[in-house]
Design a protein that fits this description.
197 residues; alpha+beta; Mannose-Binding Protein A, Chain A; 3-stranded antiparallel beta sheet; 6 helices
């Protein structure tokens, strides 16, 4: 339990206060378009969210309380079509932002450069398909935040906290302010494969 707390504290590089989005004007779409695909993963391999949850349990993945609540909300769905997604990892610094930026401005800039937010299923699928995550590593999933039962907007992250692989949730809204080094996983949309046979 102590290790989960340490990871949760490390993930919170986000503050709930207004941020100034200062963008480096010299950054061009070509600079960011050259970002290499980090990982390709498959979606649509589970018939229902419950089958996906069972797979997480069988794999020994720890799901934090807040993440578990988000994953069990009606808004969480799984794809009915088997597809492959190519993913990239971007930080606010990669998009030319200064010290801090709001989540809304960060997402808007990424979309302007051709990247997309991840589907809800991706956090759980990535956790199952990325088993060799380095110790201490944390990756935030670029996604539309999902409300908990109490209505708190929450986003998901995958981490290796030393006690095993995990999915954790943290408060996140459009007004959340990110440190420029916080890393997020995005989809490279033009690289989405056609549905698998």
């Amino acid at each position: 339990m102590r290790m989960v707390f340490v990871i949760s504290a490390a993930i919170v590089l986000v503050m709930q206060s207004p941020g100034v989005a200062q963008v480096n004007a010299a950054l061009s779409a070509a600079n960011v378009a050259g970002v290499s695909t980090w990982k390709t993963i498959s979606l649509g391999s589970f018939a229902s969210p419950w089958a996906l949850f069972d797979a997480l349990d069988m794999a020994g993945v720890h799901v934090g309380d807040t993440a578990g609540e988000v994953l069990h909300r009606p808004a969480f769905t799984v794809s009915k079509v088997k597809t492959r997604l190519q993913l990239v990892i971007l930080a606010a610094a990669d998009l030319g932002f200064g010290e801090r930026v709001s989540l809304a401005a960060f997402y808007a800039r990424a979309r302007q450069l051709g990247y997309e937010l991840c589907p809800m299923e991706l956090a759980a699928q990535l956790r199952l398909q990325y088993r060799d995550q380095p110790l201490g590593d944390i990756l935030n999933i670029a996604m539309e935040p999902i409300a908990t039962f109490e209505g708190e907007l929450t986003s998901l992250s995958i981490a290796n906290g030393g006690a095993g692989l995990m999915i954790v949730g943290q408060p996140m809204s459009a007004e959340s302010v990110l440190d420029r080094a916080t890393r997020f996983v995005f989809v490279r949309p033009q690289q989405i494969a056609q549905p698998l046979p």
